[in-house]
Amino acid sequence: MPFDHHGTTSNGNNPANETSTPVAEAQVIARLRGLITGEVIAPEDAGYDAARAVFYGGHDRHPAVVVRPVNADEVAAVVRLARETSLELAVRSGGHSGAGHSVSEGGIVLDLAAMRALDIDVENRTAWAEAGLTAGEYTTAAASHGLATGFGDTGSVGIGGITLGGGVGYLVRKYGLTIDDLLAADVVTANGEIVRVDAESHPDLFWALRGGGGNFGVVTRFKFRLHPVDMVVGGMLVLPATVDVISGVAAAAHAAPEELSTIANVMIAPPMPFLPAELHGKLIVMLMLVYVGDVEAGQQAVAPFRALAAPLADMVRPMHYTEMYPPEEGGYHPTAVSWSMFVNTINRDTAQVILDHLHTSSAQMAVAQIRVLGGAMARVPVEATAFAHRQEPIMVNVAALYQNPAEEAQHKAWVREFAAALNQGSTGVYVNFLGNEGKDRVHDAYPGATWDRLAAVKHRYDPDNLFHLNHNVASAAVES
Ligand code: FAD
Fold first, then answer.
1. What ranges in 369-422 are assigned the alpha helix state H?
2. Least enclosed by CB within 10 Å: which of 70, 93, 247, 431?
3. What does pTM read for this prediction?
């Protein structure tokens, strides 16, 4: 579900380039064509508009060039050239950044789409995955061995962005965040070096990569742990949106065994074919769930949700895990404003707040998404990785999707007011659900000691802030 902010233009703040000599774009393009064998797509090329497009609408930027290197050496050559020239570098895996970070105005887009190799070691249950793969592609390939690594709820999201921010998905309570299965990474640093990063080699960088986003270098390959995941009890359960159902879903998700992870979308029913026409436009709870384990036990774990109200649609059944990632429509580029937050409880009062606000939205689609967390994710010590919110019990994302850019202010005001009404005191936010919401919100994603440690690693690996088109952890050197 797309619930991120769309943002402003790329920030144009590239301290790395302040001291470098501007180079004519044509010259840069010619040099790139000499340096790499992968695609180099310039504005006059036929594929340029498709190559500059990203998932979210509202980021209509025109980079000087989009490059698709085919291996780590070529990535390193692009990084070195970006450093040498005055062109801003955007790094792209799946292009789903809500803040529009994977396309830059007038800069170089380093698109990893040509790097999609996946090498699965079935015996040791690990996989080396190139960063251009999507979560869906990885999941499908791993499933042919009855194995999986947890990503998010959408197959087209790139493994690059979701992993570096943390990764909260259908296996989160059973196996933790995506980063909890990250064993190593190959990284091209700001000076163009290729380094193998793991618990022994560059441990500070390994810590920072697990939640700190794209601040520290370009990851060309990830090594993940795989788990035995084949048949699951999963799918969609649609319930009427009432105070009792919304609070009941949250309570049942808390009480459920940790084999069960849920994502509940309280929303106006879109005209989906499996819903009777009289429900279209009415408020529903669209619950996505996955139970990893024995099918019989899974059916029992789902029973409390089914008992909350007569389901409007019940598509929960034993299925292959890959079926949770159905094919997606190409060409879908929604514009959205959203706010992500953590709360302690969704009780009846909170549920009433949710219903009251969703009723008043004028957006094409308005939603409150509830993810009850806990389980394996919460057992990893907070300081073990750069994801600082492991003890938060529930993540809520509120979002409005719309088409007319002139409506932005009204939807933004609605989202902010809704989020304020839901606020239960936590200021934390998951970085992968942040839009362009200002420096304070980036600090909220990386509070206290997490920020200090990230800033120190940034200072060590990218003191000039070459990698700044991200939720930026500027190093002390750049900030002063
Ligand atoms: P990109 O736009 O390609 O990358 C985003 C940023 O990550 C880049 O700007 C760059 O800074 C960095 N980056 C990406 N690849 C690399 C790399 N190889 N090396 C260095 N830096 C890199 N998140 C969840 O956790 N769970 C979900 O269920 C979930 N669902 C989503 C559903 C939708 C429809 C969308 C749009 C997003 C969802 N997200 C979810 C958020 C998602 O994790 C982030 O938007 C993530 O950044 C997208 O990764 P990407 O590679 O597709 O994006």
1. 376-379, 408-422
2. 70
3. 0.95
